Amino acid sequence: MLKQMVFQSALLSALTLAGQSVADPVRFSTIDYAPYALTGDALGRDGLIVDIVSVTAEQARLEHINAVLPISRVIKNLASGVADCGVFL
After folding, report:
1. pTM for the whole thing?
2. Which positions carry the signal peptide feature in this UniProt record (predicted)?
């Protein structure tokens, strides 16, 4: 199930971002919502959704950046073009 979800996400990301320059990393913004995205975790964990985004980008062979932010900031970044993809639950 997880492999299928990762594959579908990778395919969608690749198709959505096909026009983007290869040199530019894909800019993800993920909502800050534990345990799906963790900031400042004592054990160094990133969170489930952050891990899925990383695996998805790796499977699609996309260089990426993932910022974990409050939901209002994710929406603002998408609207202003600061982020390419928003990750919500």
Report:
1. 0.69
2. 1-23
**Could you please report the per-residue DSSP string of 56-81?**
HHHHTT--EEEEEE-HHHHHHHHHHT
**Strand, helix or coil at 55?**
helix
Sketch the domain layout of the chain as residue ranges.
Answer: 29-60+74-80
Amino acid at 23: A
Radius of gyration of the chain (CA): 13
Structure-token pair, residue 40 = 């400042």
Q: What is the DSSP letter of 38?
A: -
When pLDDT is averaged across residues 65-88 and rounded to a whole number, the result is 94
Give pLDDT, residue 77: 95
